[in-house]
Amino acid sequence: MVSIDVKNLKLVYRLRQGFSLEMADRRVSGHSQIKKRGRTRWITALDDVTFNLRAGDRLGLVGSNGAGKTTLLHVLYGTLEPSAGTVHTQGRVDALFNISLGFRHEATGRRNIIMRGLINGWSPAQIDHHMEDIIAFSELGDFIDLPFKSYSQGMAARLAFSIATCMNPEILLMDEWIGAGDTDFQHKARKRMAELAEKAGIIVLASHNHGLLRASCNRFLKLEKGRAVLLDELPAAPLRNRR
Fold first, then answer.
1. Whole-angstrom Cα distance, residue 236 to residue 17?
2. Domain boundary among 167, 187, 215
3. pLDDT averaged per 10 residues in sequence order, the chain, 243 residues
4. Can you spell out the DSSP letters for the chain?
5. CB neighbourhood size of 34 (10 A)
6. Are 119 and 193 members of one domain?
7. What is the CATH number of the domain that holds 31?
8. Global pTM value
9. In which domain, by residue range, is 115 found?
10. Is residue 98 part of a domain?
C-alpha cells in the first residue's frame, strides 16, 4: 500500500556569501525565516511540517512564492535532506519539477523517451512497449523526431508528462508547470491524474492555479513561511489573481 508520512519536518540551509536579504526575500515569504549568527545567515525553508497521505490522495500545495512548496516536493523526492523530522514513503516515486530536467536538448523527442525510460529503470522491452502510447498522448506527431530544443514549453511539458505517467507511478510529485499548455491537454492530464490516484496512487501537486487544484485534488495543504496547515477545502483566490 502506497503512503507518505511526514512528521515534524524541518529544513534549514545556509545563505551563501554574496546572497543579499533582498534576493532571499524573493525565495522566502518574510524575513522572520532568516536568522543571523555572526556573519552567517540561515533560512528556515520548512518548519515543523506534519501530514500523512494514503492511496488515492491527491494533495494540492498552495502558498505564496517562497512559502516552501517546491522545497517540500524536493524533500519528498529525496533530492534535499531534512535538517530534522522524518519522511517515510512507501511506493515508487516519480517527479516532474522541471520540464527540461533530464532531457538532452540536441536529441529528438523519441530518443529522449528512450533515455528517460532507461534513467527510470525501464527495460528496453518496456520502453518499446510504451513508445507509441507516449507519442500519441503527447500529441507531438511528427515533431517527435525533431530535436527537443525546437519544442515550445507546452510541447516539452506534454512530452515530460506523457513519459512520467505512462508507467503508472505509485507516487507522483509535480510542480507548477503542469498547468501550461492548451485547455484540451490540461483536461487529458487531469483525467490521467485521477486515473492514477484511483489505481492506489498518490499525487502531490504544487500550483498557484486554484482552478487546477480544485479539479485535480481532494486534499490541500497551505504553506506560510515554511509552516503547513491542512485544509478541508481550498479558499477563494485573492481578487488580484482572479481573471
1. 39
2. 167
3. 95 67 42 54 89 93 89 93 95 78 91 91 94 96 97 89 85 74 80 78 89 87 90 64 42
4. --EEEEEEEEEEEEPPTT--HHHHHTTSSSGGGEEEETTEEEEEEEEEEEEEEETT-EEEEE-STTSSHHHHHHHHHTSS--SEEEEEEES-EEEES-TTTT--TTSBHHHHHHHHHHHTT--HHHHHHHHHHHHHHHT-GGGGGSBGGG--HHHHHHHHHHHHHHT--SEEEE-GGGG-S-HHHHHHHHHHHHHHHHTT-EEEEE-S-HHHHHHH-SEEEEEETTEEEEESSPPPPPGGG--
5. 15
6. no
7. 3.40.50.300
8. 0.75
9. 104-167
10. no
Q: Cα angle vertex 221, ends 159, 8, to 5°? A: 110
Joined grid coordinates for residue 142: 511528427
Q: Which phi and psi angles does 112 have, rounded to 5°?
A: -65, -35
